Amino acid sequence: MSTTDIPAPGNRRDFLTLLTLAAGGAGVAAFSWPFLDSLRPGDSGSVRPPIDVDVSKLPPGQQITVVWHGSPVFITHRTPQALERLQQAALAARLRDPSSAALQQPPYAANWHRSIVPAYGVVVGICTHLGCVPTYAPTPDPATPVANWPGGYACPCHGSKFDLAGRVFIGAPAPYNLPVPPYAMPTPTTIRIGENPPGVSFDFSTIQQI
């Protein structure tokens, strides 16, 4: 684990923590959001600046997890094959909200890939059921964690499953897709979490559930 920009006691800046660089099917360890919330400074009333994440060295198929406002945010570099699967009608038929009708994302992420650009997925890594952190399982598998697994996220607590766009599967206890935070891409390889693109207004507090 490596950490950057950790604030000193009393510092009111937001902080960015690199929790993991997942290789292949490896992912962030399963633990609940209240534990992650304890990692941030106790300044919930302050206004925090956005954080920039450089994804220029993030290989396709891998993911990093950063902490934003005390919550884990998954940033995934999706492969062309993964993007093809996200567009399949057979996958959409297995999802509760394939078109992102519920307000769980900014308007610029209300699309089939739920992101600004298809290659990079950005979602808050908190299961919308009871707040556990889903495991990154990007590799398709005929049987695990479910039959005809297309790749995505599996919650270790109560079994909710999400695809690589964070869309929840039908039958999962989680009622909503994983939230997408406000973010912008000031450069093709910089993701700025906590700031909307120019000319767009989106308040993260208006989402259905986190």
From TrEMBL:
Its main location: membrane. This is Ubiquinol-cytochrome c reductase iron-sulfur subunit. InterPro entries: Rieske_2Fe-2S, Rieske_2Fe-2S_sf, Rieske_Fe-S_prot, Rieske_Fe-S_prot_C, TAT_signal, TAT_signal_bac_arc, Ubiq_cytC_Rdtase_Fe-S_su_TAT, Ubiquinol_cyt_c_Rdtase_Fe-S-su. One of its GO terms (cellular component) is plasma membrane. Pfam families: Rieske, UCR_Fe-S_N. Component of the ubiquinol-cytochrome c reductase complex (complex III or cytochrome b-c1 complex), which is a respiratory chain that generates an electrochemical potential coupled to ATP synthesis. It is an enzyme of class 7 (translocase). Belongs to the Rieske iron-sulfur protein family. Transmembrane segments: none annotated. It comes from the Bacteria. GO terms for molecular function: 2 iron, 2 sulfur cluster binding; metal ion binding; quinol-cytochrome-c reductase activity. Its EC number is 7.1.1.8. Its cofactor is [2Fe-2S] cluster. The gene is petA. It is a single-pass membrane protein. Binds 1 [2Fe-2S] cluster per subunit. The Rieske protein is a high potential 2Fe-2S protein. Keywords: 2Fe-2S, Cell membrane, Disulfide bond, Electron transport, Iron, Iron-sulfur, Membrane, Metal-binding, Translocase, Transmembrane, Transmembrane helix, Transport. It catalyses: a quinol + 2 Fe(III)-[cytochrome c](out) = a quinone + 2 Fe(II)-[cytochrome c](out) + 2 H(+)(out). The keyword Electron transport applies. It comes from Gluconacetobacter sacchari. The main subunits of complex b-c1 are: cytochrome b, cytochrome c1 and the Rieske protein. PROSITE patterns: RIESKE (PS51296), TAT (PS51318). Residues 87-184 form the Rieske domain.
